[in-house]
Amino acid sequence: MKQQTLDQRLESYNVIAGSKSTPSCKLVFAASAVAAAGGILIPPPAEASIVYSGIQNLAVEVGQSQKVDMNGDGIFEFIFTISSASPQVSQKLLLSSNNSSPTVIKRSEDRPARLSSNYQISNQKVFESIVNPNDILALYSGSYGSGGDFANQPAGYLGVKFEVDGKILYGWIQYKAENNGTEGTIVDWAYESDPGKAIAAGKKKSFNWNLFLPAIIAGGGSE
Hints:
The protein is α+β, with helices and mostly antiparallel strands. Helices cover 15% and strands 34% of the residues.
């Protein structure tokens, strides 16, 4: 049985983690290994932290509003409302906010975009303010058909950004419009706590090298 070198163990782990080692990454691990031999472990650079809400399944019903506090500070950044807009429109699902800071990625027609999983939410995207409650997620009408990216679609993601203590944070909210617009569900949400850091739609946790580093260094896998 042949003992694997540190580089070989790192390479094997990177296959599992879905990434590739860069020279700088290997240098960090090499330094960690040397330090570990002397009883001291030098951790690699810290990964940004994604804060996940857990499954919420907040029901949005006609005539009621459901609010989302992205970071749990008591300030509700986003408000979901279903209301009748006119005799021609049976139900209109709206997204709004109670301050000017929060914004959302939109598509054409000034409506919030329904994003797919892993869509990168960052400062490279176009965000617009949603101060007024007229950003239609899903509109159902007996006369005019339906509109909005969430109309008659499976659950999707909203790409959002909001400000905390003067710093911009990026996140996502998973939402599903149901029963022809008469109700909906805010499934869950997450945000990147490192200001300015991008986040992939649907991503729920950051990768933590520190959990695996000691095992990688000390591991005795064979070829």
